[in-house]
Each structure stands twice: as structure tokens, then as C-alpha cells.
């Protein structure tokens, strides 16, 4: 449990190493998948926030560098490990689960800054890049659109809203993201 990390962070401090802690690194607790259906269920946001606050409170004097989610954009290609959904889940369900992760990340960032004002925190993106098949305009446009789908997570994390190109993507693909006022 946490006692292991108590000892680990103490040893790291003695060795002059500053830890960078990732709160979620592809280890969606099975209980949250079984009982709630993974990140598709809004209730998981509250569980993650509780977990994050617990860890921030315990290690506020030992850790100043945090990641909320590792490679959060991998959920598009690995929905089970990323958001706890079956591989055959539909595109709309995956994007809804991703939305819940982004909200949870924002809440964790806010909680971290309230508990550890000097902390640095965000999420990690996988830096994949899609190259066009040819230099033809339609291939260039398709590659640009795919790259945007990979990287919109950073826009949401930094700006607190979906960029116009993703709103257009959702409209064009008949995807409705259920949001509440507290998501903003």
C-alpha cells in the first residue's frame, strides 16, 4: 500500500532524486470496471478525485511533479487499458469516457494546486504522428485531421474546452458528449 511509497520517496529524497508521480498509468481498477463500467460512468470522476486528493495530501511535502494520466490519448486505440471499456465499444462511448477522464484530470489539477501550490501537474500525451500517404491535398488533410484527433487532449487540458475542430468532428460523426455545468 502507501507505506511502500512512503519508504520509496524517503529513499529518493536521500539520494537527491525528485519523483515525478503518475496517478494513472493504464491500471484501471477492475472494481471500477465491474461495478461502474469504467470511465464511461460519470461516477468514476469522483472516485478518481478522491484518490488524487488522498495521494496529494499524503505526499504534498515529498512530491512536487505530477501527471494525472499517462498517454491519455491512447484511449482512442486501447479503450480497455485507457478507459476500462471493451475493445468493441462504440466511438461515442469511448469519447464520453475520455471526456470523463479529462474532467477528472482537471479536478485533480485543481485539487493539487489547492493542496500543493508550487506543484507542477498535467497529463502526458503519446506523441504519435500520422504522415500523409502522398502529398496530394486529400491525403494531407486526412493526416492533419488524424493528428488533431490524437492531440486534442492537450488543447482541452490547457484551455479547458474542446477546440472547434473536435466540436466539428463530434457533429460530423453524430457524437454527443454529455456534459454538466461542473465540467467547465
Automatic annotation (TrEMBL):
Does Lipid metabolism appear among the keywords? no
Protein name, as recorded = Family 1 glycosylhydrolase
PANTHER family documented for this protein: 6-PHOSPHO-BETA-GLUCOSIDASE ASCB-RELATED, GLYCOSYL HYDROLASE
Q: Which superkingdom is the protein from?
A: Bacteria
Against Pfam families, the record matches this protein to:
Glyco_hydro_1 (PF00232)
Its GO CC terms are: cytosol
Gene Ontology MF terms: beta-glucosidase activity
| Annotated family | Belongs to the glycosyl hydrolase 1 family.
InterPro entries in UniProt: GH, Glyco_hydro_1
Which chain regions cross the lipid bilayer? none
Q: Which GO terms describe its biological process?
A: carbohydrate catabolic process
UniProt keyword annotations, A-Z? Glycosidase, Hydrolase
Amino acid at each position: 500500500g502507501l507505506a511502500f511509497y512512503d519508504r520509496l520517496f524517503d529513499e529518493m529524497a536521500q539520494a537527491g532524486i525528485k519523483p515525478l508521480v503518475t496517478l494513472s498509468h493504464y491500471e484501471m481498477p477492475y472494481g471500477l470496471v465491474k461495478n461502474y463500467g469504467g470511465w464511461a460512468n460519470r461516477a468514476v470522476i469522483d472516485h478518481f478525485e478522491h484518490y488524487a486528493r488522498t495521494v496529494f495530501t499524503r505526499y504534498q511535502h515529498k512530491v512536487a511533479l505530477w501527471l494525472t494520466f499517462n498517454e491519455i490519448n491512447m484511449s482512442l486505440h486501447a479503450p480497455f487499458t485507457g478507459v476500462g471499456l471493451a475493445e468493441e465499444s462504440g466511438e461515442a462511448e469511448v469519447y464520453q469516457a475520455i471526456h470523463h477522464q479529462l474532467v477528472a484530470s482537471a479536478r485533480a489539477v485543481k485539487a493539487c494546486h489547492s493542496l500543493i501550490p508550487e506543484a507542477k501537474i498535467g497529463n502526458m500525451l503519446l506523441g504519435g504522428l500520422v504522415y500523409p500517404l502522398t502529398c496530394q491535398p486529400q491525403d494531407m488533410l486526412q493526416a492533419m485531421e488524424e493528428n488533431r484527433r490524437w492531440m486534442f487532449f492537450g488543447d482541452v487540458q490547457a484551455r479547458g474546452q474542446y477546440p472547434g475542430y473536435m466540436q466539428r468532428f463530434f457533429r460530423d460523426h453524430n457524437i454527443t458528449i454529455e456534459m454538466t455545468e461542473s465540467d467547465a
